[in-house]
């Protein structure tokens, strides 16, 4: 008889905490608790949100009468540790410390994932792992260079969901992810637009650093002169929050709740309509940018993430970008399923867990 493994998934995002309990590959329970940016900004740092978000876990377990005693695996979404190759990593003290310190330069709610997994592990046991954290670095060399000597672009994206979506679509095509070229976009509280060449994310926006389209929580790219004018004199925390929590829709409307903003759009609010459409327009521009690293050889444009619940987003992207490649939508995300599948591979011995190296996968050119 095949053994049944119980796997608990913890996925803190910029505007929500998503929790799932799996038995092998079957999703038994899932909840996704929204957090308004006003509440999150009341904490001095993201690390200070730990107790607040742990209460979400304990409320979920109590309300659904779930006992995690004897759990086999606890999976925490990885955060801003040093950049690593893709894969599944054991959560240890060094990984937790480097994530809390944002050693990889990513300041984002995902940094709570390994910390929350450790809290659950301390109480209920089980192995604890992370998989394909946002700092997976597979950039091509040309994508690293900037116009300032010694300053290099970072790879920060929704790597877990982007790669899971790409693998899912490749399988539906009857191909391997490693044999395809995709542009994959995660569109939600944060937005990642990435170019995938034969199984590697060779380019994309630094979603964690505020580069790219503005989002419900992030201000997006600005000209250096605009950035200097707007940010000069602000505190480090104010600048950090604009990049990760207080920018974008939150800056315009005082809330990162996309449903509230979209209701304003539906009710004819001219400012809301203008800003909403501009956000979609910027996503479209970045998709066009990502077609060029792939030399136009794109098998498909894949859209995923929670904001696809608003049909006009996918429709406008398809209208503008289908000349590049066919556009396919995968609303929501595959992150919970991907983490559960990864835990199963470790638990069954199909794959070996990696040890976090404690140093970046790439640290500069030799000359």
Automatic annotation (TrEMBL):
UniProtKB keywords = ATP-binding, Cytoplasm, Kinase, Nucleotide-binding, Transferase
Query: An example of a Gene Ontology BP annotation on this entry?
Result: acetate metabolic process
Database matches in Pfam families: Acetate_kinase
A GO-annotated cellular component: cytoplasm
- EC number(s): the record gives 2.7.2.7
User: What would be an example GO MF term here?
Assistant: ATP binding
Nucleotide-binding is among the record's keywords: yes
Q: Which InterPro entries does the record associate with it?
A: Aliphatic_acid_kin_short-chain, ATPase_NBD, Butyrate_kin
Localization per Swiss-Prot or TrEMBL: Cytoplasm
Q: Spell out the Gene3D superfamilies in the cross-references.
A: 3.30.420.40
The record's catalysed reaction(s) read: butanoate + ATP = butanoyl phosphate + ADP
The record's annotation in PANTHER family points to: ACETATE KINASE, BUTYRATE KINASE 2-RELATED
**What family does the entry list?**
Belongs to the acetokinase family.
Tell me the HAMAP family matching this sequence.
Answer: Butyrate_kinase
Q: What is this protein called?
A: Probable butyrate kinase
**What's the source species for this entry?**
Porcincola intestinalis
């Amino acid at each position: 008889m095949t053994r049944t493994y119980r796997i608990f998934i913890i996925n803190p995002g910029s505007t929500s905490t998503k929790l799932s309990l799996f038995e092998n590959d079957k999703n038994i329970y899932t909840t996704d608790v929204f957090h308004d940016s006003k509440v999150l900004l009341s904490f001095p740092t993201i690390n200070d949100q730990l107790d607040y978000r742990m209460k979400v876990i304990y409320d979920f377990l109590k309300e659904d009468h779930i006992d995690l005693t004897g759990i086999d695996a606890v999976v925490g979404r990885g955060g801003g540790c040093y950049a690593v190759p893709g894969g599944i990593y054991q959560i240890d003290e060094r990984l937790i410390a480097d994530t809390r310190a944002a050693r990889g330069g990513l300041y984002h709610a995902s940094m709570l994932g390994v910390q929350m997994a450790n809290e659950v592990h301390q109480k209920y046991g089980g192995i604890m792992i992370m998989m394909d954290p946002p700092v997976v670095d597979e950039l091509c060399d040309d994508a690293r260079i900037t116009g300032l000597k010694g300053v290099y672009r970072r790879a920060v994206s929704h790597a877990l969901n982007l790669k899971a979506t790409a693998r899912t679509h490749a399988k539906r095509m009857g191909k391997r992810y490693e044999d395809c070229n995709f542009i994959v976009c995660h569109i939600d509280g944060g937005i990642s637009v990435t170019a995938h060449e034969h199984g590697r994310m060779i380019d994309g926006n630094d979603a964690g650093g505020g580069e790219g389209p503005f989002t419900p929580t992030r201000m997006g790219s600005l000209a250096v002169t605009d950035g200097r004018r707007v940010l000069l004199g602000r505190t480090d925390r104010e600048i950090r929050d604009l990049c990760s929590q207080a920018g974008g829709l939150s800056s315009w409307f005082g809330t990162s709740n996309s449903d509230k903003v979209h209701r304003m759009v539906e009710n004819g609010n001219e400012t809301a309509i203008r800003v909403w459409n501009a956000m979609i327009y910027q996503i479209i521009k970045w998709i066009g940018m990502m077609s060029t690293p792939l030399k136009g050889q794109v098998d498909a444009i894949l859209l995923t993430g929670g904001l696809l619940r608003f049909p006009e987003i996918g429709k406008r992207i398809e209208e503008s970008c289908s000349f590049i490649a066919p556009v396919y939508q995968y609303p929501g995300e595959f992150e919970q399923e991907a983490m559960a599948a990864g835990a199963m591979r470790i638990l069954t011995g199909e794959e070996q867990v990696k040890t976090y190296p404690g140093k970046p996968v790439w640290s500069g050119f030799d000359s």
